Amino acid sequence: xxxxxxxxxxxxxxxxxxxxxxxxxxxxxxxxxxxxxxxxxxxxxxxxxxxxxxxxxxxxxxxxxxxxxxxxxxxxxxxxxxxxxxxxxxxxxxxxxxxxxxxxxxxxxxxxxxxxxxxxxxxxxxxxxxxxxxxxxxxxxxxxxxxxxxxxxxxxxxxxxxxxxxxxxxxxxxxxxxxxxxxxxxxxxxxxxxxxxxxxxxxxxxxxxxxxxxxxxxxxxxxxxxxxxxxxxxxxxxxxxxxxxxxxxxxxxxxxxxxxxxxxxxxxxxxxxxxxxxxxxxxxxxxxxxxxxxxxxxxxxxxxxxxxxxxxxxxxxxxxxxxxxxxxxxxxxxxxxxxxxxxxxxxxxxxxxxxxxxxxxxxxxxxxxxxxxxxxxxxxxxxxxxxxxxxxxxxxxxxxxxxxxxxxxxxxxxxxxxxxxxxxxxxxxxxxxxxxxxxxxxxxxxxxxxxxxxxxxxxxxxxxxxxxxxxxxxxxxxxxxxxxxxxxxxxx
Length: 492
Fold this sequence. Notes:
Elements: H1 3-23, E1 34-40, E2 50-55, E3 61-65, E4 75-79, E5 85-90, E6 99-107, E7 110-117, E8 120-121, E9 124-125, E10 130-135, E11 142-143, E12 157-162, E13 168-172, E14 180-185, E15 191-197, E16 202-207, E17 215-219, E18 229-233, E19 239-244, E20 253-260, E21 266-272, E22 280-285, E23 292-298, E24 306-313, E25 319-325, E26 335-339, E27 345-350, E28 358-365, E29 371-377, E30 385-390, E31 399-402, E32 405-408, E33 412-418, E34 421-424, E35 428-434, E36 439-443, E37 448-452, E38 459-462, E39 467-472, E40 480-483, E41 488-491
């Protein structure tokens, strides 16, 4: 190293750096995110293939596992942001409580859900599905439905919702029938079909912007073209096709998700079609038979991937979603992405069958404002995970590379799966303290506190030694620093 050059150039900037250390002025920061592991499923009593994650009123995350394999017919679980797991309920091994739980919501401290298979008809085990309730603490599991009516095609519920009249409504997806139904769980918990729906691959039924309690939903193979549809139905079964998709439209086809946006329009994703043939984020302005559909954003195989599996919206209008495959890292194991209110797509995290999992499915905004989700596969045991995408500003300016690895143009590669504890490949373990500019680090090897940023690294201010250091980043068994105060090289 040209010691004189580094000494002269760094001396001129020491006063500026000292000012920064004192004032920590507020400046623009890159919005880099970290993919972090929250919980790994083992395939034991916690089972596998987690899904249907929701944010509960106590701040925890509640979800289901939906593996349909005797004697494991699914579970309902709770996980805290810190990864503390609680088994709330394991479905009975005889299948009478249901098999393969899907839809889940909470009201007044009570969980309500649907199981797509299992249940009883006339006292005998069948495959018609169930609707159930469960206390948020895991107590009082109760079957709410008497039976689903196989003769009317009203079997195998996939989605339920609590309407404004305090009744539960839902949609069925019978595997043995060409069409499904909308149903109501009425008096004495009787299941009443209210409308036959043409098509049998449903995603979810949701409430609309009106106060009448109308139901809205999407059908993957519905509509006059069989390419998908978005519908509206009164609770009395008066149905309107809002949108009939087609295979040649740039707005996409085969709808995968639907949600009510903050602007009272509907947004959803399609699996196919669009300008790149791998789907879109579409917008529907509801107006009866005159409803309009448009492509809000167009997907590609790399940005953000393919096979959309969830869609939510943040308070600022930003959309967040998951793709079960594809993505920029080339492994095809899925992504978490966001779409700005202006329609700009950004990949927040990508998966590559590492310890954080693969094929992300459900997604929710947690009590801390970060994104939480589940993967169907991967993790240390291959049985799925709960993960977090930390949306906090990253003072290291890293961008996700997949499998918990981030790359910073000035700090280099580092593992961020346990962020704010990171592992930089040459420096070792560092604990990151977010500041308004730059990064304050606790260096585990030396036990010292450091400060640095993109303008000064590999120059580091060591709070403990009260000196400025220059870090040699060469790949050697030892770390080397030049101490500007003493003029000596420190070797660790």
